[in-house]
């Protein structure tokens, strides 16, 4: 008779479910909710502007909806109704006309709204193709970027409003308690007083130890055994020809002393060079107008002049028109009186004859 073997029970291995680390919703510095944003379009965009929309979403990570879906029937109220429960505080709206593309930055739910004209723009793909060694690590977009504003300290009201709007779009940081490992990106806005244009740039931050060649730096970071077959000594690997060309020139103005360790190469109390590499997108903006409400309301600023100046100019023009009409009426009345006097004199002459 056949024997039945006792089969051993196989152990079932259950892999633990790793939950995604949720981003904090409350700012530790101010105690308020961290600002979040929606990036979408209001008109049908060409492929290049559609890619610019995706680049702006990546720029606003991690506090934005990267896979936000839009439909033709959606209007602004639909986005506003969803923004409230999700804690969205800002809208970045792209649109396209026959003249030029536009970018509107609005504060929900009651405004104000800044309308910018996009004179020039470059996509992140174009910038990466123009670089010899493009840099975009995976964890680059895990934390929000730092904001740097330049040239906005003139004291003009519309520039102050632009400064406050962009400052409230990103989480605030405390210089004394912030971790250096969280500072990996920078958003730079530079205002040109002469042309009145705003240069919008997006950079990644990279630190390099001063006085260390690129070969040694890669060896420490990657932990890969170098190829020493053609060398007689380890010192030849360090002092190999081309050491000076591989080590980048260190500018004293761009070097900092780290307060804590950052990675395997950059150590505390040592000098490191700060390198900025553009990752895009790149835009050249011009402020067209500022509206008091959410894409509606009174115009607080216009490129042709403020609302108050426009009203005064309209009043002046109306007064000038009224004065001209009064002068014309006076001239007509004077001509009528002169004609009546001439008729009376002719009648008197006829009676005398």
From TrEMBL:
GO terms for cellular component: preribosome, large subunit precursor. It comes from the Eukaryota. Residues 308-319 have a biased composition (Basic and acidic residues). It comes from Opuntia streptacantha (Prickly pear cactus). GO terms for biological process: ribosomal large subunit assembly; rRNA processing. SMART domains: Brix. Residues 320-353 have a biased composition (Acidic residues). One of its GO terms (molecular function) is rRNA binding. Residues 305-353 are annotated as: Disordered. Residues 35-296 form the Brix domain. This is Brix domain-containing protein.
């Amino acid at each position: 008779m056949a024997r039945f073997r006792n089969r051993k029970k196989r152990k079932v291995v259950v892999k633990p479910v790793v939950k995604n680390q949720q981003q904090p919703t409350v700012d530790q510095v101010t105690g308020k909710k961290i600002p979040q944003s929606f990036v979408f379009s209001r008109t049908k965009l060409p492929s290049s502007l559609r890619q610019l929309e995706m680049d702006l979403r990546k720029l606003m990570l991690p506090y934005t909806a990267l896979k936000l879906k839009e439909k033709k029937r959606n209007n602004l109220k639909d986005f506003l109704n969803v923004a409230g429960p999700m804690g969205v505080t800002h809208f970045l709206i792209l649109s396209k006309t026959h003249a030029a593309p536009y970018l509107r930055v609005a504060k929900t739910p009651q405004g104000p709204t800044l309308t910018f004209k996009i004179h020039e723009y470059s996509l992140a793909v174009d910038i990466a193709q123009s670089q010899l060694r493009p840099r975009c690590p995976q964890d680059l977009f895990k934390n929000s970027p730092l904001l740097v504003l330049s040239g906005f300290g003139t004291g003009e009201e519309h520039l102050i409003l632009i400064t406050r709007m962009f400052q409230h779009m990103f989480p605030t940081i405390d210089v004394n308690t912030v971790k250096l490992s969280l500072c990996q990106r920078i958003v730079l806005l530079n205002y040109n007083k002469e042309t009145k244009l705003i240069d919008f740039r997006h950079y990644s931050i990279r630190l390099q130890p001063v006085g260390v060649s690129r070969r040694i730096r890669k060896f420490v970071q990657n932990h890969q055994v170098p190829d020493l077959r053609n060398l007689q000594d380890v010192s030849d690997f360090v002092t190999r020809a081309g050491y000076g060309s591989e080590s980048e020139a260190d500018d004293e103005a761009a070097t900092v002393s780290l307060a804590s360790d950052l990675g395997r190469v950059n150590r505390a109390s040592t000098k490191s060079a700060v390198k900025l590499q553009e990752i895009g997108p790149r835009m050249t903006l011009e402020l067209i107008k500022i509206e008091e409400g959410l894409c509606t309301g009174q115009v607080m600023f216009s490129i042709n002049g403020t609302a108050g100046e426009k009203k005064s100019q309209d009043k002046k023009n109306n007064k000038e028109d009224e004065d001209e009409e009064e002068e014309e009426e006076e001239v007509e009345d004077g001509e009528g009186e002169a004609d009546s006097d001439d008729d009376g004199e002719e009648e008197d002459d006829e009676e005398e004859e």
